[in-house]
Amino acid sequence: MQKQKKWKKNLYENVGYPDNYTDKTFLEELKKNVHAKEISPLNAVLGAGLVTQEICIVVLFVVIYVYLLNVWVEPETMFVQSSLVAAIGYLTYRIVLTNKNYYNVLIKDFRTVLIFVAFGYVLSPILKTLTDTISTDTIYAMTSFMMMIHLIFFDYGVSAAIVSSSLSLNAAIFGSVCLASRLASPFHAFVLLTNAVECFVLLPILLSKGKGSILVLAVMISVAIYALWTVSLTMTILFICVSIFVTVLCPIWFLRWQNYKENIYGPWDEAIVHDTEM
User: Fold this and answer.
1) What's the CA gap between 115 and 120, in Å, rounded?
2) Is residue 2 over pLDDT 60?
3) DSSP structure class, residue 271
4) Where does the sequence pass through the membrane (predicted)?
5) Which of 81, 123, 146, 180 is packed most tightly, with the most Cβ within 10 A?
């Protein structure tokens, strides 16, 4: 009998072998977890802390709404205090944390703020009555749903298909407009919407410069706990439990499940052509 040729990984050369035949050398190119990255416990906590920070922002905004709704603070006082905090944060961002010619940028941004304040104040009566005919229970349900969408689609620095900064921001602003209709006057609504822009637009930009800092995370959680404690002890305990779950338990589970990760790569994978310069 004619001696059979040695099997190769080229189908057209394997005359006399079944199409699905492989020898012991086929699995020599098997690789596992080629693109796996080692994540430290600190990085896992900081990554989960980004979600906790955004939850803290939502909590702070809701506390501001409760204060305005119950008239625990005058809207003028809230507007001045929040504006001062926003101004300090903005100047810190522009002067300390950026290496640009910030003088021209300050003039441009100041013009933008004036336009926003003017149009926001003029349109606040319309925004207040936009959802005025809807029942309060429906308003709160819609706001809760919008804030959940905001948290789900927020850009936490991960490149994923679910991330949509525009959808996240629009959901938060729409929830703010819904809550504005429950307040006493158009100026109350204007103050609430101004704080919504500061919380959901300006504050995340400032916090992005402090990404990866345990101190920033601790300050945000502490401020949120204190603010929520002035409103409801039950909600404070619930928020603490949620913070522990997101910031501590989820990273622990993630690191534990990383040990079971096993992606295999081998000669059965689709060939990838790499362009090389001649």
Assistant:
1) 8
2) no
3) P
4) 42-67, 79-97, 109-127, 139-158, 167-184, 190-207, 214-231, 237-255
5) 180
Domain that residue 93 falls in:
46-247
Residue 79: strand, helix, or coil:
helix
Cα separation, 200 vs 58, whole angstroms: 8
Q: Which helix (H) or strand (E) holds 31?
A: strand 31-32
> Strands 264-265 and 31-32, how do they pair?
antiparallel
**Residue of 86, 136, 81 lying closest to 113 (CA atoms):** 86
Q: Which of 198, 219, 202, 176 is nearest to 53 (CA)?
A: 219
Per-residue pLDDT for 43 more than 50? yes
Asked whether residue 88 is domain-assigned, the answer is yes
C-alpha torsion 235→241→243→249, nearest 10: -170
Q: Count up the domains in the chain and report the number.
A: 1
Contacts of 49 (CB under 8 A, 6+ apart): 214, 217, 247
Distance from C-alpha of 136 to C-alpha of 112, rounded to nearest angstrom: 33
Evaluate whether residue 147 is within a structural domain. yes
Residue 208 has what pLDDT? 81
Give 127-170 pLDDT, tens digit per residue: 888 888 889 999 999 999 999 999 999 988 877 778 888 999 99
> Tens digit of pLDDT for each residue in 55-91?
999 999 999 999 999 989 999 999 999 999 988 888 8
* Domain assignment present for 220: yes
Domain assignment present for residue 83? The answer is: yes
